[in-house]
Description:
Elements: E1 2-5, H1 11-18, E2 22-25, H2 31-37, E3 43-46, H3 54-58, E4 65-68, H4 78-83, E5 87-89, H5 96-112, H6 114-122, E6 140-144, H7 148-159, E7 163-167, H8 173-179, E8 182-183, H9 186-192, E9 195-198, H10 212-216, E10 222-226, H11 235-244, E11 247-252, E12 271-273, H12 282-300, H13 319-322, H14 325-339, E13 344-353, H15 361-373, H16 385-391, E14 395-401, E15 409-417, E16 420-429, E17 433-439, E18 442-446, E19 451-458, H17 463-473, E20 478-485, E21 491-498, H18 504-511, E22 516-523
Parallel strand pairs: 1-2, 1-3, 3-4, 4-5, 6-7, 6-9, 7-8, 9-10, 10-11, 11-12, 13-14
Antiparallel strand pairs: 13-15, 15-16, 16-17, 17-18, 19-21, 19-22, 20-21
Helix pairs in contact: 1-12, 5-7, 14-15, 15-16
Amino acid sequence: MKVLVSDQISDLGVAKLRESVAVDVKTDLTPEELEQVIGEYDALVVRSSTKVTRKVLENAGRLKVVGRAGVGVDNIDVEAATERGVIVINAPEGNTISAAEHAIAMMTSLARNIPNASASMKAGEWKRSKFMGVELYNKTLGVVGMGRIGSEVIKRAQAMGMDILAYDPYISAERAEKMGVTLTSTEEIYRKADFITMHTPLTKATKHMVSHDELAIMKDGVRIINCARGGLIDEEALYEALKSGKVAGAALDVFEEEPVTCNPLCELSNVIVTPHLGASTEEAQVNVAVQVAEQVVNALQGEPLVSAVNVSVIPPETLADVKPFIPLMKKLGSFYTQVFNGQVESVEILYSGEIANYPTTPLTNSFLIGLLSVILQETVNYVNAPVIAKQRGIKVREVASKTVENFTNLITVTIKTAEGTRTIAGTLFNKDDIRIVKIDKYNIEVVPSRYMLVTKYMDMPGVIGRFGITLGESNINIAGMQVGRQSIGGEAVMALQVDCPVPEDVIKKLEKLDAIVSIRFVKLD
C-alpha cells in the first residue's frame, strides 16, 4: 500500500502512516502533476492547499481513501469520490481542546483587561487602577451551544467556580443534568448571564442570533465571547452596545468578513480581537495529522472508521433491498427536526413488514443523519451519526415486527422530547415512491418535496381557501396538498408542496389568519 502526502502535515502524522504503509511526501505538486502521479497511490492525505478535484479522482485508479488533516472537506469533491467508491475521511475532533481553551483564554483576558494592561506597561505606564477587573468565580456563564467545543468550555468554566446556564435545543435534559448545567432558553441566558460565549454553527437560524433586541435585554455590563463563527453576532449592534457601555467588553476570534482589514470593533478599547486562532496550536495540528493518519490506515486495512464522511455500511448482499429506504429515512429525520420542537431524549424506530427481515442499523443511522444534519454544520454520516446522538444524550432503540396492517412495509418513529412524545411514520410505494403516512396523531399521505409548509389549523370552512389565497397573493405556487384530521371541526394538519422557499414575512401573514395554530417551513434536500 502506498500513501501520498501532498500538503505539509505534522511529522508525527507522517510517522504514524509509515508504521503501516509506504509514504511519499510531495508538497509542491501542481494540479497537473498530481493528476499524473495519483494513479500510483492507494491513499492521499491533504490539508487545505491540495484540491482533490473530479479530474484528479478520475486519474486515481488505485485510490481507496482521501484523508483531510482538518475538519472541512471543501477542497475535496466528495460527490466524485463517492461515485468512485473512494472513502473521504477528516479529523473533526482534533482542534476541540484548542478551540475551547482559546475561548477560556479570551474570557479570562476580557475579565482582567490583560491585553490593555500589557500594552499600557509596554508604553511605559503603571496605571493599576485603570485596569480594574472582575472575578470569574461565582459569575454566571451563558453557553450557547453544547457541542464538542461548548461542552469542553463548560468543564473548564465549572473548574473556575462559574455557574452555567446553557442553551442547545438538541441536547437532552438528562445529558445537561449529567454535565451539571442548567438547560434553559437563549432569552434566559441573555437576561441572567454575566458572561456569554457562543458555540453554535452559523446557519440561517443562527445568523445574527445576537442583535439589537437580544443585547437590549442583557444585563448591564455583560461580557460576550465569540470564538465559533462570524455572523452569529450582529457586529453593528454589538458596536453600539459596546460604545454605550451596555456591554462591558467583547472578545472576538471570528468575524462576518475575514480576513479583517478594517472593522470598527477593532478600534474599541473594550474589545479583544484575535485572527481566527481557535485551532492554531501545535497540539491541534499534531492531533489532526495523527487522527487522519490512523483513520487512513484503518480504511486501507478494512477496519472500522470513526470520522468517514461518505461511508455506506449496508452489507453488499442486502444493498438492493435496503438502499431504497435510505432517502425515506433521511427525509423522515429532516422533516421531524423542522416540524417539531423540543430537546430529543430518545428515538424508537419500529420496522414493520418485510423490512424487518433485513439489517436496519444503516436505516436508523440514515434517520439520525437527517435528524442531526439540519442542526449541525459539521458533516453527519453513517459512522458518526450514532456517536453524535450518544454525545447529545439521545437514546436510540430499534424494534422489529414482521407483521403490519395496510402496508408492505411501515417505519414508525417515536421520539420522546422534553415537551412530550411525537410520532412520524413513512413507507415506500412501488419500492421507491416515498410517503409520510403519519404526522404525530394524524394519518395523512404526504408526498415529500423540496419545499413544504406543514400547518396545524382548526378544521373550519374557508381556512384552506384563505391560506391558498394568501400564498397566491405572495406569488407562491402550490404544487400539491394533503390534509389529515381526527374529527370534524377539530384540529387538523395540512401539508403543502410549494415551488419555492416561503419568506418569513409571508409565514407571518399566514400565522395571522383565523384558525391557524402553527406553521413550519420545511426544506428537504
